[in-house]
Design brief:
About 35% of the residues lie in helices and about 20% in strands.
């Protein structure tokens, strides 16, 4: 018999499983609380359950627990980057950041990525596999335990394309926000996509009021295709139409991520084109000085170019911020630490 991934089960699914074991319904609440509030790492820690029930759980289920194999702490801002080992030997990255509004975690949704974005280290070795909901939850749970601080915000912006692992990402969102679990507000969660149009449209109908972040990075298809291969499948016109649908369905404004690459997408003309593109889109632009990746020749825009780009957008009435850099001295960008580890660095 194949064991069940107990931490990925919805509460009704857990109830059904325990009833099939011959247990009373209230046991599901106890087990769910041990898994998603007390964050146990072993069935033996569920001390208010009978030894017989714990044995049944051990025999019929497996408990996903991530182990940190490397932790880097920024001397600049205290940001922590964790490299977690999965049960199959793969490794994934998560980043913990402290802000004035609380602590935030950036988690991965896949081992590697197949989207091929030119400025991202996550995609250099392609996609290994999708993460389960439990493996996404565990990034949050272990970091809460390791830091001793409650997580208030989550961004699914680490390695992987969330809508390339759609079902498990939605399962993660429903579990992390469940009232019997950590009960993290969905309004404090951001899901980032490179622009998978069917995924955006489907997600708009889930009834999950999370913030959608679109990796935009260019004001036209021509430049965007040089940075993001996915632009060849989903042109900007279709992507932005889907983002508008998302706003109309959820009332949540979309964040447009724009990585500034020197000499590629950072000139004043492109800033003005971006302003025209996003006019009346009810969104917010997040400018990101690109993190250099050694395998790519891209360089970050200089401070003057960033300032001018931002000022042009503001004059055109576009809400814009420049992302505060966190963990730059500890390979804070997506995929960098994992790749260094795999190379023996």
């Amino acid at each position: 018999m194949e064991k069940k991934d107990i931490k990925s089960l919805y509460f009704p699914e857990l109830c059904e499983m325990l009833l099939e074991m011959g247990e009373k319904p209230f046991r599901a609440g106890q087990v769910f609380g041990w898994l998603h509030q007390k964050l146990v790492t072993d069935f033996s820690q569920m001390t208010d359950l009978s030894k017989e029930l714990r044995r049944k759980l051990f025999d019929q289920c497996f408990l996903t627990v991530l182990k940190p194999v490397q932790v880097k702490v920024s001397r600049i801002d205290g940001t922590c980057k964790y490299l977690f080992k999965l049960a199959d030997g793969n490794v994934i990255e998560s980043v913990w950041m402290r802000y004035h509004h609380g602590s935030s975690i950036c988690i991965s949704s896949q081992v590697g990525c197949r989207m091929g974005c030119r400025f991202c280290a996550s995609t250099l070795d392609g996609l290994e596999r999708n993460l389960t909901a439990a493996e996404m939850l565990e990034q949050v749970y272990r970091i809460e335990q390791l830091t001793g601080e409650r997580v208030s915000h989550i961004v699914i912006m680490g390695s992987g394309e969330p809508f390339d692992n759609y079902d498990q990402v939605v399962r993660f969102l429903r579990l992390i926000s469940h009232e019997r679990g950590l009960h993290i507000s969905l309004r404090n969660i951001t899901v980032s996509t490179c622009g998978i149009v069917p995924g955006i449209r489907r997600f708009a109908g889930e009834g999950l009021p999370v913030t959608l972040a679109l990796s935009l990075h260019a004001p036209n298809d021509q430049v965007r295709k040089t940075l993001m291969p996915v632009a060849g499948s989903y042109p900007l016109k279709e992507v932005l139409a889907a983002c508008r649908e998302y706003f109309e369905a959820t009332g949540r404004r979309v964040t447009y991520e724009y990585s500034l690459v020197k000499g590629v997408n950072d000139n004043p003309g492109e800033a003005r084109a971006l302003a025209r593109l996003l006019k009346d889109m009810h969104g917010h632009v997040n400018l990101i000085p690109v993190n250099p990746v050694k395998e790519r020749a891209f360089e970050r825009s200089d401070k003057r170019a960033i300032k001018e780009f931002k000022e042009i957008l503001e004059k055109e009435g576009i809400a814009v911020t420049v992302r505060r850099e966190m963990g730059r001295d500890i390979q804070g960008a997506c995929g960098q630490l994992r790749r260094s580890f795999l190379e023996g660095g």
